[in-house]
Amino acid sequence: MSYIAPSADVADQTVLGEGTKVWHLAQVREDAVLGKNCIVGRGAYVGTGVKIGDNTKIQNYALVYEPAVLGKGVFIGPAVVLTNDTYPRAVSPDGSLKSAHDWTPVGVTIEDGASVGARAVCIAPLTIGRWATIAAGSVVTKDVPAFALMAGVPARRLGWVGKAGFPLKQDGAFWVCPETGSKYIEDSNSLKEAEENA
Questions:
Q1: Are the CB atoms for 59 and 42 separated by under 8 Å?
Q2: pLDDT in tens, 44-90
Q3: d(C-alpha 198, C-alpha 191), whole Å
Q4: Torsions phi, psi for 102 (to 5 deg)
């Protein structure tokens, strides 16, 4: 059974998976679909039609604007912003107020297991690959490969991380997780799990 805090604003057309919790002052808009065991923290916003996979955590005051798609086991840190407008303007060139029909939203896609640190901003459209880690305060402006460790403004790849989230250490032809011992192979600016892990 899902839980909605009394002060949360969850639209009737929202789908909440079993065990999902929406905490105080959070807003989840129409047609959003959240998988099982998700957490939407205090004051967070989930836009219309956003899709969120099982076991995903959206921390306090994060803003997940439509049409974002989040995979399973994604971590969205406090006050993260996933944007949805490439060329934002409040008004048209003639000075008239723009409405929702005057632009086409573009989204951020975050693949399974990836983490976005506190106060990072992801500028749509872009995709963050599976198990990647975005450091707190970063501004992500382009696609991120799987297992990449990204930091800075704009974000640049500083190294690789494994599924446990620890930076990987190079050992011969492999990148190795110091926590789990899992091995990965680098191939033309991307990383994949070594066959023995699969």
A1: no
A2: 999 999 999 999 999 999 999 999 999 999 999 999 999 999 889 99
A3: 13
A4: -95, 10
Burial annotation 121-140 (CB, 10 A radius, 16+ → b, else e): bbbbbbbbbbbbbbbebbbb
Query: Across the chain, what does the average pLDDT equal?
Result: 95
Residue keyed to tokens 């500028």: 123
CA–CA distance, 65 with 81 (Å, rounded to integer): 8
At 101, give phi and psi (nearest 5°): -90, -5
Do the strands 169-171 and 27-28 form a parallel or antiparallel pair, or are they unpaired?
A: unpaired
Residues 6 or more apart whose CB falls under 8 angstroms from that of 84 comprise 47, 65, 66, 67, 68, 105, 106, 107, 108, 124
Residue 83 tokens read as 């944007």
Residue located via tokens 């690959």: 129
DSSP secondary structure letters along 39-63: EE-TT-EE-TT-EE-TT-EE-TT-E
pTM of the predicted model over 0.85 = yes
